[in-house]
Amino acid sequence: MADPIDNNSGKYTVQRFPAVADPADPGYSRCTTWVQAVSHGFHQQRRDDEYLAKTLTAYQTDKRELTGVYVNGSVPDHSLGADVPVATYATMRKALNIGFGRQLEAHLVTAVTVRGTHRRNGILRGMITADLEAAKDDGLAMAALTASEASIYGRFGFGVATFERSIKVDTGPRFRLRGLPQGTVEVADPSVLLDVAPQVFERLQRLSPGSIDRQEYYRLVASGSIGHDGKPDTSVRCALHYDLSGSLDGYVSYRFKGWDHKPYTMEIVDLVAASNAAYLDLWRFLGSIDLIDEVTWVEAPVDDPLAWALEDPRCIEASEIRDMLWLRILDTPAALQARSFPVAGRLVLEVTDSLGLAGGTWVLESDGGAAAVVKEAAGETPDLSLDAADLGSIYLGAVSPVTLAAAGRIQEKTPGAALLAQQLFAVERSAHCLTHF
Ligand SMILES: CC(=O)SCCNC(=O)CCNC(=O)[C@H](O)C(C)(C)COP(=O)(O)OP(=O)(O)OC[C@H]1O[C@@H](n2cnc3c(N)ncnc32)[C@H](O)[C@@H]1OP(=O)(O)O
Fold first, then answer.
1. Which among 308, 315, 345, 395 is placed 20 to 30 Å from 265, CA to CA?
2. How many Å lie between the centroid of ligand 1 and the Cα of residue 147?
3. Strands of 163-170's sheet in order across
4. Which residues approach ligand 1 with their CB closer than 6 A?
5. Which of 14, 119, 435 gets mutated to test ligand 1 (max ligand atoms within 8 A of its CB)?
6. Nearest in space to 14 (alpha carbons), one of 86, 117, 81
7. 369-421 pLDDT tens trace
8. Could you tell me where in the chain the CATH 3.40.630.30 domains are found?
9. Is the interface score ipTM higher than 0.85?
10. Where do the CATH 3.30.1050.10 domains begin and end in the chain?
């Protein structure tokens, strides 16, 4: 990667290296220092050796590429050493479900930090622009991230594509679900999730638009093998869902918030259901736990079947609808070609991109079946003009182009084009992403 700050040339050196998990590897200490710098950037505690070892093992499994920006030359006495990066950035590649069972390899950006004493010098801009260019050169059509603040990444062409919300569910007497169980739920030792969580998630990954294949860390957290402090979290419990044929298709892991917390509450650590029945049956189970008045979940879908399955939907108290997955189209024709469009239609899309990666004008022609043709528009007038960030937002069908047109973000040049885009980009079930990274 080039020096991230053109006008500060010579001040910094950028190093890009793979995560290594072997303490005997000469690159190990560079990785541990990098992880400490990330913790510093997110105001977390200094990590102990156990945490570092577990984290780097997981990072290596995910084939994470780490970037550190280092100050050249000496640093003042007593300050953090020159071996501690002033900025961090990491990437890995995972599948994104883009609807109708299609998967697109996405370039995931994570662990972005710039030390306070080096901020607003263009270090992030330098790192991210160089990285997105390299990912495109490598043949990827899509980048993605989850953001700490909503004000940072729009300028780099990322658009919000899925949302999540926090819910508190009253599981007292008024918690009653319509219908009958479609399978069975059994309590299990949470350690089984080390094996079965990835299998169940793989089924969800095939089912759910917006889903991103999970990093290694998730099965460790779901099973309680690692808590926030890096130590095993022995308060984690789990239950498994089996369909009518006895096949495992869902799990929930959860922890009790304690007898000093009222109302008595179970907190969902992870809930993965690979069928509608598994989702409702797991909720039926959660609602039946004795001595518990409330179940909380911070990664709930906004368009939640639970609300429609409850006899009293007001059992759910929802708050904090948040942007979740941000998408960045790197290659417009490749990203469009990858999608399946459920209705027939033709749109000329003019895409602008301040980073010069995804801009241009293309004709999208769908027969409403498997095939979509995307070709460069030869002098045709666009039906819609939009920024790459807005194309990222509408790509999974969770953000309406009609709403973005109303907001003045998308220009509708042909009346009705935004509605046609909404129909074209629709997916078979509401997009939701359960993978934070
Ligand atoms: C995917 C993830 O990892 S999300 C996590 C992001 N990291 C954090 O929130 C940790 C705390 N914050 C930080 O470490 C830093 O402030 C960062 C990474 C957000 C920004 O790094 P910097 O090197 O200061 O950013 P840089 O100087 O390159 O700024 C680039 C542009 O973004 C803008 N910007 C940077 N941070 C912010 C912010 N928090 N809010 C709004 N705008 C911002 C700058 O004003 C600048 O705008 P311009 O180029 O259009 O004029």
1. 308
2. 11
3. 184-188, 236-242, 248-256, 265-273, 294-300, 163-170, 316-323
4. 41-42, 109-114, 119-125, 145, 147-149, 151-152, 155
5. 119
6. 86
7. 877 788 888 889 999 999 999 999 999 999 999 999 999 999 999 999 999 99
8. 6-140, 164-320
9. yes
10. 332-386+398-424
